[in-house]
Structure formats: structure tokens, C-alpha cells
């Protein structure tokens, strides 16, 4: 492990660097021009890059990716400080207060001797108190709009399920998938592109619900499917390249055979 640094000193250094970058007279013109909205997409991107490093187990890259994500917090906090709204210390205090409040079994007098199920119920009760303080009255209030769509679908469905709006089991969801598939075919065959998009969205939403009932994270499942597709298509390209060809020089039948070969090779390696 590298020489251990002083966290407080390094954080102070980062805050000072960000303030210098935002100085209207001597700072970086690009940094000075940014605002909350323009920085938000970078925050999302950096969070995904952290997740990507973890998925690849690229532990040597992870400190840098986490640093990039921390920069987004520091950047937004500096913008807020300049506007007289809040600063980084307020952000740190807010999350510290929240963690203490949400863990009375660690920082308070409650017993730690409880089941995971009871802990989840207690957590939701605490969050309900927080939502009430924010004037969030509806069951679905507070589920962030900026979440990836599949993740947001899962959170919306979990919220609705907690108040009893849910199918009894996976079989009922599978039946709904059959129904939504038929409606998508009907839309494709005569209802126009807008209706087709709506029905496609309904089908994706129900698929997310099936994942929830099967205790599968739909976002994670799709990420892994994307990775598998990328890996196997890469094997197709590599095999064709060895012959001095590219995918556009091949045809679907040949690429299907190469796909099956890549799939078989993966299973043989895994087995």
C-alpha cells in the first residue's frame, strides 16, 4: 500500500484547488462557466465509471475513479458556496447527521439484536419520517427522476409494494408479461409508433417487476448481458480478423456459428 496520507489535509487541498479553478479572475475559464445543471451529467458519468472499475475488479483504478466522483461533490459544493447557498461542510454534516439518525441501533439506545427483515422495516420507518419532513406525501414521492430507468422502475415498484400494491408472486408477473407482449404486437401491427413505444415501455416496466420478484436487480442483469454481448461479439470480430475479414464481410449465418462457438468456449472455460 502507498504511504498513508492525511485525509483532512488532502480534502482541504482539493477544496482549495477547486476554489482556485473557479476564481473568476485567475481560474480556468471552463470551470468558471459551469453551473449545477452543466456538471450534473458528469456526476452521473463518474458514478458509472466507479461501478465499471468495481465490476472489472480494477482495484488499481478505483482510487482515481472515486477521486473523480469526489470532485463532482466538491465542484457542486463550490458553486453553491459562491451563491451563498451552502458549502462542502454542510454536505458532510448532512450525510453524517443522516447516518446517525438512521442507525439508532449503532449510535443510539436501540438494540442491535434484530433480524435483517426487522432492520429493513425500521429503516423504512425512519425514511418515512424524513420524507414527512420534506413534505413528501405520496408513496412514490422522492424517487429521483435522474436514476437509470430500470433502477427507478424497481424503486417505484418497491415503494408501491410496501403499501400492498403488488402481484402475489412471479407467476402473476409472467402472465402480465404475456399480456403486455400481445399488446405490443397489436400496437406494432396497427396503432402507430407512439402506441408502440408506450407498450414497449410497459413491457420493460413489467420485466423490471419480474426481476424484483425473482430478487434480481434488472439494471445489474442488463449490464451483465451487455458485457456478455460485447465479449462474444468481440470473439466474432477476432475470429474474422484472423481470416483477414471484418463483420461486414461475413453474413448472419456465419456470425451465428461464430457466436455459438464463443458461447460454447465460455461454458467450457466456466465448467
The global form is: globular
Number of domains: 4
Q: What is the CA-atom radius of gyration, in angstroms?
A: 25 Å
| Major sheet | none
Q: What's the count of strands?
A: 0
Name the CATH superfamily classification of the largest domain: MazG-like
The helix/strand series, from N terminus to C terminus, equals HHHHHHHHHHHH
Percent of residues in β-strands: under 5%
Structural class: mainly alpha
Contiguous helical run count: 12
Short description:
The protein folds into four domains: 89 residues, Helix Hairpins, CATH 1.10.287.1080; 30 residues, no CATH class; 68 residues, Orthogonal Bundle (Helix Hairpins); 51 residues, no CATH class. Helices cover 73% and strands 0% of the residues. The chain is built from twelve helices and no strands.
Task: Describe the fold and architecture.
By secondary structure, this protein is mainly alpha-helical. The protein folds into 4 domains: 7-95, MazG-like (Helix Hairpins, Orthogonal Bundle); 104-133, no CATH class; 149-216, Helix Hairpins (Orthogonal Bundle), CATH 1.10.287; 220-270, no CATH class. The protein has 12 helices and no strands. It has helices spanning 7-21, 29-33, 36-55, 62-82, 88-102, 104-107, 116-133, 149-162, 170-190, 193-213, 218-242, 252-270. The protein is globular, with a radius of gyration of 25 Å. The model has no long low-confidence stretch (mean pLDDT 89).
Amino acid at each position: 500500500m502507498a504511504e498513508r496520507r492525511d485525509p483532512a489535509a488532502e480534502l482541504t487541498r482539493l477544496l482549495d484547488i477547486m476554489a482556485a479553478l473557479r476564481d473568476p479572475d485567475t481560474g480556468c475559464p471552463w470551470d468558471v462557466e459551469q453551473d449545477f445543471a452543466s456538471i450534473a451529467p458528469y456526476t452521473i458519468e463518474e458514478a458509472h465509471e466507479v461501478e465499471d472499475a468495481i465490476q472489472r475488479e480494477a482495484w488499481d483504478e478505483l482510487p482515481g475513479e472515486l477521486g473523480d466522483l469526489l470532485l463532482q461533490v466538491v465542484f457542486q459544493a463550490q458553486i453553491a458556496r459562491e451563491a451563498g447557498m451552502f458549502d462542502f461542510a454542510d454536505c458532510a454534516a448532512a450525510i453524517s447527521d443522516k447516518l446517525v439518525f438512521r442507525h439508532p441501533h449503532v449510535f443510539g439506545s436501540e438494540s442491535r439484536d434484530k433480524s435483517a427483515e426487522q432492520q429493513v422495516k425500521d429503516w423504512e420507518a425512519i425514511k418515512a419520517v424524513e420524507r414527512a419532513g420534506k413534505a413528501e406525501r405520496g408513496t412514490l414521492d422522492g424517487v429521483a427522476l435522474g436514476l437509470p430507468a430500470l433502477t427507478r422502475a424497481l424503486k417505484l415498484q418497491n415503494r408501491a409494494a410496501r403499501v400492498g400494491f403488488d402481484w402475489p408472486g412471479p407467476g402473476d408477473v409472467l402472465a402480465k408479461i404475456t399480456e403486455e407482449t400481445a399488446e405490443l404486437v397489436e400496437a406494432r401491427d396497427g396503432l402507430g409508433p407512439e402506441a408502440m413505444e408506450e407498450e414497449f415501455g410497459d413491457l420493460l416496466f413489467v420485466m423490471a417487476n419480474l426481476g424484483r420478484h425473482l430478487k434480481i436487480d434488472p439494471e445489474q442483469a442488463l449490464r451483465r448481458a451487455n458485457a456478455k454481448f460485447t465479449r462474444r461479439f468481440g470473439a466474432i470480430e477476432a475470429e474474422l480478423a484472423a481470416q483477414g475479414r471484418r463483420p461486414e464481410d461475413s453474413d448472419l449465418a456465419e456470425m451465428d456459428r461464430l457466436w455459438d462457438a464463443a458461447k460454447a468456449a465460455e461454458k467450457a472455460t466456466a465448467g
